[in-house]
């Protein structure tokens, strides 16, 4: 049974604030992450006209008379769901905004990066602000009143507190709203249907023919790798296509917000830093379902390695989700160099400080778990580095003024606790 109530989204205050000073707001994210629900809630808070381009009749009007379409709301806010289906509305929308720059005139949603869709005639620079909506964060799933903000909490609070252990079911469930409350079997069936529809319909519509057969295979290969550096030549061999075709597939999946990339942190004092980003699917539940991975596999000898990759992906995704509402500005990277030093996540703060994070799926760890964080700090001694080792256990402790060992669950269970 599905959850009886829609989940509140922590991004809503930022969207409401932006609607108060910006003419065009864009909510973009993968299919079924909750864009329409959120847009409908925002529409209910003000006078508005809500239309969806999933409706063939509405889409026909948008395609045949885009000038009329964008002016139909008069003084009210026009909410256009799945706006990427009619890219021709963008130029008339720009023209009407240039004539009347009142804030909150348009709210668009798109199951693709709207401004990268073929046929979009303008970037709407200076007129629009785009927000990424991810699958539900763990704080949203827990229906937290106050949005979780791990990075700000880490920087501002001096003491320590324990938390709960991370259980595999949390990682393998992921954050797509539709699978919450479903059985493991029914969740897997939903994801299978979801991936097939994306490949057979959405990708074909977005990028033309030839994508249907390979996009499904691409998603499965990426799902089986957790968060990793993609080597296009190797991926091309696995898909039996040309390397430039792989690049096109990856671009399409990125535009559809199905995959995400963590860029490398580019500075290296010794050796040469890797430049490839780490790539993964946008949700660990999606990845687990496409690979048939279950909680039972996570405790098997053969499944531990893949589960570890999923846990690293899970942490990176949770931190990326929180970035949208965090009180602290940061950019997310990974680090690897030719000397063999690798750190799972490097968060670069606006003031130049770095948060170096190692992620471990084990419930018991020793000093080897945070050794790379210490090596990273020693190597970049001219930067202030805050070290964190996140693991699946429930105890917290601080080794030095700069190094914390914390449960992974502290990413969202930190309210009232202190690291």
From TrEMBL:
Record domain AAA: where: 22-141
Pfam families xref list: AAA_14, DUF4143
InterPro entries: AAA_14 (IPR041682), DUF4143 (IPR025420), P-loop_NTPase (IPR027417)
Highest rank taxon of the organism: Bacteria
Domain DUF4143, chain residue ranges per copy: 201-361
Protein name according to UniProt: AAA+ ATPase domain-containing protein
Originating organism: Rarobacter faecitabidus
Organism placement in taxonomy: Bacteria, Bacillati, Actinomycetota, Actinomycetes, Micrococcales
